[in-house]
TrEMBL record:
SUPFAM superfamilies from the UniProt entry: NAD(P)-binding Rossmann-fold domains
Keywords, in A-Z order: Oxidoreductase
Alphabetical list of InterPro entries matching this protein: NAD(P)-bd_dom_sf (IPR036291), SDR_fam (IPR002347)
Domain of life: Bacteria
GO MF term (any one): oxidoreductase activity, acting on the CH-OH group of donors, NAD or NADP as acceptor
Keyword Transmembrane among record annotations: no
Entry keyword Chaperone: no
Pfam families assigned to the protein according to its UniProt record, in alphabetical order: adh_short_C2
Family listed: Belongs to the short-chain dehydrogenases/reductases (SDR) family.
Record's protein name: NAD(P)-dependent dehydrogenase, short-chain alcohol dehydrogenase family
Length: 261
């Protein structure tokens, strides 16, 4: 049997990337927690780069974000009064809150029988209660404003487990399911709630950990490298933007293939 040759035609001019792309978050008012460094800092600067007015928050009294064009507010995420002050102030100054990225989190690796009650309570207060308080504070303003996007940063360890780190697993699993609940509750209100699940990311936090822990997790990652904070920030921009308007109650996993195994 004879086969005809396949002829492929090419346009006369090569395709050129659109360097005039409009920023994806123009006009948005966004609050980001735990934004002093690492993933939170990357999310805050990415939001600003995409045109949002960004209120970066952290536990320090002050932080110089002027080079990145960010506002700064002190916020202890485990303190409900802090949340009411910060979100109320943002709404007063800017008229609304469009995006909340609940990123603040801490980790401890002690096994069940060795973790103190004080340390357990601290992990729960920051990772789980802090996320709940953020949603509780911002949802009334989003309802009044006709909608918004909440991005709750969970983890691959909100789905899968390793030895130790049980308090972190418990809280990040709670973030995952709280996000789904809020998404279903407010699906018809224009409020989208999604969880973001990073794998092992090279940050000051992971740099301070036992190198053996880091080597183990990277070794279990199919892509064989740590992720970068900017790679997580790209996912947060997508969830905050109009590109994800039919997405709520979902889990966006950015983990180099870890959970695919």
């Amino acid at each position: 049997m004879r086969h005809r040759a396949l002829t492929v035609t090419h346009s006369a001019a090569p395709l050129v990337p659109n360097t005039r792309r409009m920023p994806r978050l123009t006009g948005k008012i966004a609050v980001v927690t735990g934004s002093g460094r690492g993933i939170g800092r990357a999310i805050a600067t990415a939001f600003a780069r995409e045109g949002a007015t960004v209120i970066a928050t952290g536990r320090g009294e002050s932080c110089d974000y002027s080079a990145d064009g960010l506002e700064y507010e002190r916020l202890d995420v485990s303190n409900p009064d802090d949340w009411e002050r910060v979100i109320g102030g943002v709404a007063d100054r800017h008229g609304r809150v469009d995006v909340l990225a609940n990123n603040a989190g801490i980790i401890t690796y002690e096994p069940v029988q060795e973790l103190t009650v004080e340390d357990w309570n601290q992990v729960v207060a920051v990772n789980q209660t802090g996320t709940w308080l953020g949603m509780r504070a911002v949802i009334p303003h989003m309802l009044a404003g006709g909608g918004g996007s909440i991005i709750n940063v969970s983890s691959i360890w909100g789905t899968a487990a390793v030895a130790g780190a049980h308090a972190y697993h418990a809280t990040k699993g709670a973030v995952r399911t709280m996000s789904k609940n809020a998404a279903i509750t407010h699906a018809k209100d224009g409020i989208r709630v999604n969880s973001l699940h990073p794998g092992f990311i090279a940050t000051p936090l992971t740099d301070s950990q036992d190198p053996a822990v880091n080597d183990y997790v990277v070794g279990q990652t199919p892509m064989g490298r740590p992720g970068q904070p900017e790679e997580i920030a790209n996912g947060a921009v997508f969830l905050a933007s109009g590109e994800s308007t039919f997405m709520t109650g979902a889990e966006l996993v950015i983990d180099g293939g870890y959970l695919a195994q």
